[in-house]
Amino acid sequence: xxxxxxxxxxxxxxxxxxxxxxxxxxxxxxxxxxxxxxxxxxxxxxxxxxxxxxxxxxxxxxxxxxxxxxxxxxxxxxxxxxxxxxxxxxxxxxxxxxxxxxxxxxxxxxxxxxxxxxxxxxxxxxxxxxxxxxxxxxxxxxxxxxxxxxxxxxxxxxxxxxxxxxxxxxxxxxxxxxxxxxxxxxxxxxxxxxxxxxxxxxxxxxxxxxxxxxxxxxxxxxxxxxxxxxxxxxxxxxxxxxxxxxxxxxxxxxxxxxxxxxxxxxxxxxxxxxxxxxxxxxxxxxxxxxxxxxxxxxxxxxxxxxxxxxxxxxxxxxxxxxx
Length: 323
Ligand code: 2P0
Hints:
Blueprint: E1 4-16, E2 21-23, E3 28-29, E4 33-50, E5 56-59, E6 62-63, H1 66-81, E7 88-95, H2 105-120, H3 127-137, H4 141-146, E8 149-152, E9 161-164, E10 171-177, H5 187-197, H6 201-220, H7 224-243, H8 254-268, E11 273-276, E12 283-288, H9 292-300, E13 307-311, E14 318-322
Parallel strand pairs: 5-7
Antiparallel strand pairs: 1-4, 1-14, 2-3, 4-7, 4-8, 5-6, 8-9, 10-12, 10-13, 11-12
Helix pairs in contact: 2-3, 6-7
């Protein structure tokens, strides 16, 4: 029986955003989403079974803070309640991100943890079930199990599915860090506030349905410009909904705005690059793999950008070693 396993999972950035929940208990997304897993955003997690009567959780070499530790303990409890895990574990997880600037670490973190737990389980867990289990930890983690371009539909218990394998994807992203302060409002809290107070929440859900369908069609026909246009518009629509919450949540700073403008300038110079923004100030530029170097140069020269780096398509979560 395996008692110790080391795994790796890549974070992803959504082309069509998951924003809003149908059900908080089951962590059911209110919007279907599509993402690209990225090789520069990797989490490595070591999980060891222990005879101790409690779980121990270490993140980036330090004991996890209380809120994070509780979230992970609750998640381990869910595995135990479902008889997929017995006893307790020691978790040591590290983000090998170029910077810790509020990037999607819950996606890679929970995908890595779920993958490790499935290896330690006596039950044989299918990949789709694993994606569902990862979703309970974090919605976006369901997509990191699959990797490449993955879609997470809505539904009563959805799992992510593969749309395009990583090695068949001909575009990547330039990630621009526009501020590294910890998020003011967590995605979880902001999603709740959007649902209860944003006058645009319903409009966002309706638009998101159209964007999801249009994105699937654009991916199928490898129509890069349409992929980029829909992704950029979808991210801005999500932020429109977020900005309109009461009280308002503003994730952007002045560098974010400068980078949105930069995407337009780069396009007017003849390079197809499109901006997408998660729940924070950072901007990811979606462009063809062949243009990543040129886009990186333009992004790095923008005042206010602390650091920028290239991120290429990555695969799903994987086991590195076990004993
Ligand atoms: C996404 N985000 O699709 C969207 C876009 C942020 C902006 O998924 O509550 O951390 O853990 O399910 O996965 C962030 O939400 O939320 C997210 P939970 P999660 O990538």
